[in-house]
Structures are given as structure tokens and as C-alpha cells.
């Protein structure tokens, strides 16, 4: 991967400018995405690319050197980067969530401190968060919390400057989030992420041994009591929509790769009785691409609608959010996620039908799109997203907030 250096360039000042910058980053990533996927090396250079381009501080406050952009822009940026490399799109999307984590659950003082810290220093976030398992236990030692345990997944932590730890407080069972330096003796990375897809996300295990955090850094806690708001529960819809956007980026890249290969390499079938001079004239090829493009446009429109709706809530006053607003956004996101999973998997599979046998060569790398989508779309069962939408449509029920809803 050859990297561009944007350090001497003026930073974009509009949403459109940042989307264009993301496309430039994606173009760099796409040049050797297949080779880097096959090598499965830790993506230090890729994260440096995100930093140098200015994308890391997209949501950061302007007074600290950030772009002060909206989540609607951030979602589009994630989508564009994922077109170049699905793994790096995921890393950037997760970073945006963790960069916003203090705003989601923190106190005003914590929000100000965290946003200044990461924006001014161009820091990149990872997260060792898996609320499904109580595998990280927190001991209360007076003014200090001590994290101990092992997380099965820690996306991006090894290439990050800051890591969001999530654990369960002994005795109370309360979940606590805290931001800590990633490079420290108490955190050991397992280097055991070797999965089918999203191979460059550094999503392996992490061992946490006696990581000490002052109570003042426990996100949202005042005098050891969590200050609950409905706004706190936007964390799951926010990350679920991150998923939908980088799924869409991967699917769009798959379709573009198929179209390009067909136009340049696929041969027409010589035994059809109505032989064509080019594969681009084949009726079944045109039919397939027309079907897939229409479905992707529909998924994109639904995701864009969800992006606009959730972004408005994320940038509104935290205290003003109602459970109804939260629930309606969650339903729309559930619909968008299920639609892009189904469509994305179809696109990344059917492109082989219209590119031909030679397109299955490892050097072509068309398999990367299906592998990436198939791997991450198993994060949580999509059937439950369909049920959420079904309950809303049939019964008028809004989903209750959980760690996956």
C-alpha cells in the first residue's frame, strides 16, 4: 500500500469535502486490499493513513483541531472507506463510536476531557467490549477501580492509542466503561484473530491484568452512582448503523468489482443460439446486474434515511431524547441492517455468476467481499432484527434497549 501525505493539504471544510477525502483514502486502500488481506498483518500503516488524512478527528470539536462534523457525514465516510477495504472501514466506524462514547454515557466533565485528549493528539480508539459475557471483572478499591479478566474480542485495540474497557463491577453487577491507554503492561493482546473475513480488524482476544482506573474516569458515574439518561442507550443503535454502513460499502465495492471484471474480461457464451459479441450484451448478465443494482440502491436509500434520523438525535440535547424517539430510530436501523445483510450477501455471491469461472482465481480476489460480509454479519443474529421490525409493524411495539438492541 502506497500512502498519500495530506499533512500539507488544507483540511476539508464541508461534508462533501470529507466524503471526497474518504474516497481518496479508499482509492489508496483498494490498490492492494486483496494482498494485505492475504498477508493478514497488523494494520499499522492503514491506521496511519486514517490519521494523516484527518478522518480520525472528523467528529472531534473544532476548538481542538477536529472537523466538528455530524454523524451523518461520519457514516458516509465509513461507507466510502469500506469500499476500499472493509476491515479498515470497520476500524474507523468503531473508532467513531468509541470517540463518542464519553458523550453517550459520560458526565460533562468527562466529555470535555476525552474529546480534547483524542482530538488534540489525533488518537485512535479501540475497544475491548463484549457485554454478552461477564469476562472482565472490576474490583472497587476505594477511589480506584481495578479491571481483571480476558475479553474474547478487542477490535482495533492493538493499533489504537486508547482502548475502551467494559467490565462488570463485583457485587453490584453494574457495567462500567472506562478509557485507558492501549500501550501498557496491564494489557496483553492475544494475536489470535485469524478469521474468514475482516481479517485486518485486529479483533482478537485481550488479557487485562490489574488495570487501575480512578473512579472519576468511570463513564457516567458520580459518587459511584450511574447517571442514567435515555441518551445512554443510543450506543447500540449507533454501532448497529455503523455495521450497516460498512456492509453497504463492501457490497457496493463487490458490485463495482464485478462490473469492472465483466466489462474487461468476461467472455460471451458461444452456445446460446443467439450468440453475442460481448458479455456486456448477454441478456442474463444485464438482468443480473440490473437486479443487484436496484437492490443496492434501495438498501442505500433506507440506510441514508436511518443515518439522517439517528444523526439528528445524536447531535440534539442529551436530556431531550425520549424513549419513543430512540425506539423508532432503532426499528429503522434494524430494518436497514437486515436489508443490507441480505442484499450484500446476494451481491457478493451472484457476481460470480456473471463474471465467470476465471474470476474465481485468488489473484482476482472477488471472494474478499463475501468473506468480509459473512464474517461480520454474524455479530448478532439478523433474525432478531427482523423480529424487531415485525413486532413494530404488527403490534406497534418499540424495541426495549438491550446490549444488542
From TrEMBL:
Q: Which CDD domains match?
A: DszC
Q: Does the keyword Glycosyltransferase apply?
A: no
What region holds the Acyl-CoA dehydrogenase C-terminal domain? 241-379
Tell me where in this chain the Acyl-CoA dehydrogenase/oxidase N-terminal domain is found.
25-111
What GO terms in the biological process aspect are recorded for it?
L-leucine catabolic process
Recorded GO molecular functions are: 3-methylbutanoyl-CoA dehydrogenase activity; flavin adenine dinucleotide binding
Task: Name the UniProt key words of this record, in alphabetical order.
Answer: Flavoprotein, Oxidoreductase
What name goes with this protein?
Answer: Acyl-CoA dehydrogenase family protein
**Originating organism:** Saccharopolyspora hirsuta
Amino acid at each position: 500500500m502506497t500512502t498519500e501525505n495530506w499533512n500539507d493539504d488544507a483540511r476539508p471544510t464541508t461534508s462533501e469535502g470529507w466524503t471526497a477525502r474518504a474516497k481518496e483514502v479508499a482509492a489508496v486502500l483498494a490498490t492492494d486490499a486483496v494482498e494485505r488481506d492475504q498477508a493478514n498483518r497488523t494494520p499499522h500503516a492503514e491506521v496511519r493513513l486514517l490519521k494523516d488524512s484527518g478522518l480520525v478527528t472528523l467528529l472531534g470539536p473544532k476548538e481542538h483541531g477536529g472537523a466538528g462534523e455530524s454523524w451523518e457525514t461520519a457514516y458516509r465516510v465509513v461507507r466510502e472507506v469500506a469500499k476500499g477495504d472493509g476491515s479498515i472501514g470497520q476500524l474507523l466506524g468503531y473508532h467513531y463510536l468509541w470517540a463518542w462514547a464519553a458523550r453517550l454515557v459520560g458526565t460533562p466533565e468527562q466529555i470535555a476531557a476525552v474529546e480534547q485528549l483524542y482530538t488534540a493528539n489525533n488518537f485512535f480508539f479501540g475497544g475491548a467490549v463484549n457485554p454478552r459475557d461477564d469476562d472482565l471483572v472490576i474490583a472497587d478499591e476505594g477511589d480506584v477501580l481495578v479491571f481483571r479478566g480476558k475479553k474474547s474480542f478487542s477490535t482495533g485495540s492493538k493499533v489504537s492509542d486508547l482502548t475502551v474497557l467494559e467490565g462488570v463491577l463485583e457485587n453490584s453487577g453494574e457495567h462500567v466503561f472506562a478509557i485507558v491507554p492501549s500501550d501498557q503492561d496491564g494489557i496483553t493482546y492475544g494475536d489470535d484473530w485469524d478469521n474468514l473475513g475482516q481479517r485486518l480488524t485486529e479483533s482478537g482476544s485481550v488479557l487485562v491484568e490489574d488495570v487501575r482506573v480512578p473512579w472519576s474516569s468511570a463513564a457516567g458515574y458520580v459518587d459511584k452512582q450511574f447517571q442514567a439518561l435515555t441518551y445512554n442507550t443510543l450506543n447500540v443503535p449507533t454501532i448497529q448503523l455503523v455495521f450497516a454502513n460498512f456492509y453497504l460499502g463492501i457490497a457496493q465495492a463487490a458490485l463495482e468489482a464485478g462490473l469492472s471484471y465483466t466489462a474487461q474480461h468476461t467472455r460471451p457464451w458461444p452456445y446460446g443460439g443467439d450468440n453475442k459479441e460481448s458479455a456486456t450484451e448477454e441478456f442474463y448478465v444485464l438482468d443480473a446486474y440490473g437486479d443487484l443494482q436496484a437492490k443496492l440502491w434501495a438498501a442505500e436509500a433506507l440506510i441514508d434515511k436511518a443515518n439522517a434520523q439517528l444523526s439528528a438525535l445524536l447531535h440534539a440535547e442529551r436530556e431531550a431524547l425520549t424513549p419513543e424517539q430512540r425506539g423508532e430510530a432503532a426499528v429503522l436501523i434494524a430494518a436497514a441492517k437486515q436489508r443490507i445483510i441480505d442484499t450484500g450477501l446476494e451481491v457478493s455471491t451472484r457476481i460470480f455468476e456473471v463474471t465467470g469461472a476465471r474470476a474465481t482465481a485468488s489473484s482476482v480476489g472477488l471472494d474478499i467481499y463475501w468473506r468480509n460480509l459473512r464474517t461480520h454479519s454474524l455479530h448478532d443474529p439478523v433474525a432478531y432484527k427482523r423480529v424487531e421490525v415485525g413486532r413494530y409493524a404488527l403490534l406497534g411495539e418499540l424495541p426495549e434497549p438491550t446490549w444488542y438492541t
